[in-house]
DNA sequence: TTTTTATGACGTAAATTTACGTCATAAAAA
DNA sequence: TTTTTATGACGTAAATTTACGTCATAAAAA
């Protein structure tokens, strides 16, 4: 199907086609898997795990002085906060000059549930690897 | 401490120093968090999730024809298999020309446990974000 | 009103990841 | 013995991530 498209186009726009092809193949993974992977990805950096832990400890919704707690510059921490926000695990509320970040407890619960489900499905005890 | 080192060195090797500094700061995250993040990272790509699911379905330990199931080239799939193997979630056993891959059920269980623990610690219901 | 202060947008270098192709190799099959 | 076949090592281009610095801006504080 992707192949068909290629035949209709000439070489000048080949790079564009290859790009589209790349997307086509990428899209072959189910939306569900991609979604699942995205959440795992959000948790794939110690800084982001650290941020989540910090937000859980300081129950009050705390501003960007989280940066002072981490061995990273403020802008870098900000970047990580943004990623967590984009995936919905935390929420940021502007309050004057400051921004209060806090955990989205529900989102975390939901992710926990789906992660458990995914990992649970893998645990089939009939697998005997080293026979 | 890192700062101290910098003062002793001259500019010529500044880039090296910055590299070391980077490592120093990186090491400030606890080994535990780094480990945790590594596992999440292993699951941060749909191809790798897909591989795990495939291995769970085809209970028998199956060879690299996993590649035929995925929208990726054999070498790319091999790369993903390698990553899963490095983090210990799967095991590869050479059998003649072929290599049998299979799930490391115990490792998956262990990861599941630690992930649940990590995510559970974040779920403190006293957090009220939007007051 | 002027000065701080906290923030995020923007740009960027370096590192890492992703996706592939090519090759050499070891072992099955012919 | 020669030919296939499956695999992983290696190299590489393109994309993405990571870490930071600089700047403009909006709102507190002085």
From TrEMBL, chains A, B:
UniProt cross-references to Pfam families, sorted A to Z: HTH_20
SUPFAM superfamilies xref list: Winged helix' DNA-binding domain (SSF46785)
Xref: CDD domains: HTH_ARSR
GO function terms (MF aspect): DNA binding; DNA-binding transcription factor activity
Keyword entries, A-Z: DNA-binding, Transcription, Transcription regulation
Domain of life: Bacteria
InterPro entries: ArsR-like_HTH (IPR011991), HTH_ArsR_DNA-bd_dom (IPR001845), HTH_MetalResp_TranReg (IPR051081), WH-like_DNA-bd_sf (IPR036388), WH_DNA-bd_sf (IPR036390)
PANTHER family on file: REGULATORY PROTEIN ARSR, TRANSCRIPTIONAL REGULATOR, ARSR FAMILY
Name of the protein this chain belongs to: Helix-turn-helix protein
Annotated source species: Natronoflexus pectinivorans
């Amino acid at each position: 199907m992707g192949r068909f498209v290629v035949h209709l186009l000439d070489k000048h726009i080949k790079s564009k086609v290859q790009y589209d092809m790349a997307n086509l193949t990428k899209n072959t993974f189910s939306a569900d898997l991609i979604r699942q992977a995205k959440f795992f990805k959000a948790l794939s950096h110690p800084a982001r795990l650290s941020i989540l832990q910090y937000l859980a400890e300081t129950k009050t919704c705390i501003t960007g002085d989280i940066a002072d707690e981490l061995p990273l510059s403020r802008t870098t921490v900000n970047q990580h906060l943004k990623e967590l926000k984009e995936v919905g695990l935390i929420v940021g509320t502007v309050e004057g000059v400051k921004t209060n970040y806090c955990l989205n407890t529900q989102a975390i619960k939901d992710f926990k549930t789906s992660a458990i489900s995914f990992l649970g499905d893998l645990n089939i005890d009939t697998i005997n690897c080293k026979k």
